[in-house]
Amino acid sequence: MLFQFNIYSGLLLIFFTHNLVYALILLQKWIRERSKSAFWLALFLIIVALYLAPWMLGFAGWYDTESYRAVIFSIPFHQLYFFGPVLYFYTQAVLNPAFTFRKKYFWHLLPGFLYLIYALIQVANDYYGNGGAFPEFYADIDFDEWYQISGHVSILCYLIYSLKYYNLYRKVIQNIVSFADELTFKYVKEFIISCLVIIGVDIGFRIAFEIFPDFANFIGSWWYFMAVGVISYRIALRGYANENFRSKRIGYTIVAENESNSAEIQADYAEIELPKDELTNSQLTESESKLREELEKLLIHEGYFKNPELTLLDLAQATGSNTALISKVINKGFNQNFNDLVNTLRIDAFKAKVAAGESSKSTLLGLALDCGFNSKATFNRAFKKQTGQTPKDFLIQSAPK
What are the residue ranges in the chain where pLDDT is below 70? Predict the structure, then answer.
């Protein structure tokens, strides 16, 4: 097979191959572990690899050889209308292990399939309309201005939608588990930002080509695809690492598809009410006040807050109530979300241990673990958020003078 190695084709080949290799590994993970996020990330990397292909093959000599040029013209490599939906479905699959592809989601993919049909019709028309050969000055429809612009606008819209989904997830998870920091999946935000950078680089190059027309050539555009290759390299590495992390975390399932004050929670979770304005105990009904007292007894007197894996479902089962009501009572009765409330109790317990002189017998981390925190990083973040100072500074301040 023709492939002329040079600095341009060779470098893009590295990133092209890298994306396909990681896609294959992730597809194996999907088959082996049924990880939906692995499937969507693999599909995303395949789309990026195809996106790099025309420029890589062009510098490898395919545009200069008629038979190979026909292959490039016949295959729609740039699947811009699939790009956005796939990254959106990947975002959902990472944040919600129960995510499944429903029939209604097919409409997100419809523009991509319509473009495929359009591209194939165009290719057939140009080929057979020219007596069984491509015209001498045939133009690849993948690079039609209308398609490139509309495709990138579509990607941008899905990126914004994905970011809104992620932000809502962050709010909801605070009301469900007491270890929310471990499930923030900051990688997802990095992934979305990386894709936004790709869009920004594309816009930057378009502006540069308008200002410096001499730069608007095959080599000038190569730098853009090189940038996409580098960014996709990082996405693949971080995405694979994130897949390994996700496989260790189970016990939560969330679906958050809109901006309403609730989220659809799979199986045991009903609607979770997010904190609104400042609320007071007087707004609790009589039954809610009794439930608040019961929660206070469980959390404080029976030490439920010391469970590092405590979830809203645990409290619902202990009280014979449901998660929706528990969440509502916590937000209204304690003026905090579930995660912050439990961390406040843990921090109060830590302060009590320090006051009792236990810091001379144990490390700060040891005391934090005894109080229900499950990592040093989570403890430090929660303590700084609640008190405005680090645990070490608090210990120094609390030391007898």
Answer: 126-139, 245-282, 399-401
Q: What is the pTM of this model?
A: 0.81
Query: What pLDDT digit, counting tens, does each position of 81-92 carry?
Result: 999 999 999 998
**Residues 323/326/327/333 CA torsion (nearest 10 deg):** 180
CA 336/CA 27 separation, integer angstroms: 41
DSSP H helices, 212-311, are: 218-246, 286-296
Contact 145, 202 (CB under 8 A): no
Eight-class DSSP state of 255:
B
- What whole-number distance in Å separates Cα of residue 272 and Cα of residue 348? 26
Judge whether 91 and 108 are in contact, CB under 8 Å.
no
Residues 226-256 as b/e (b if ≥16 CB within 10 A, e otherwise) read bbbbebbbebbeebbebbeebeeeeebbbbb
- 141 within 8 A of 127, measured Cβ to Cβ: no
**AA identity, residue 281:** N
The CA distances from residue 39 to 32, 240, 266, in Å, are 11, 11, 21
Could you please report the per-residue DSSP string of 15-72? Answer: HHHHHHHHHHHHHHHHHHH--HHHHHHHHHHHHHHHHHHHHHHHHTTGGGSHHHHHHH
Which DSSP symbol is given to 89?
Answer: H
- pLDDT tens-digit profile of 134-156? 555 556 788 888 999 999 999 99
H, E, C per residue of 145-192:
HHHHHHHHHHHHHHHHHHHHHHHHHHHHHCCCECCHHHHCCHHHHHHH
Q: How far apart are CA 205 and CA 227, in angstroms?
A: 11
* The residue to which tokens 């060779």 are assigned: 10
Tokens found for residue 159: 């990126």
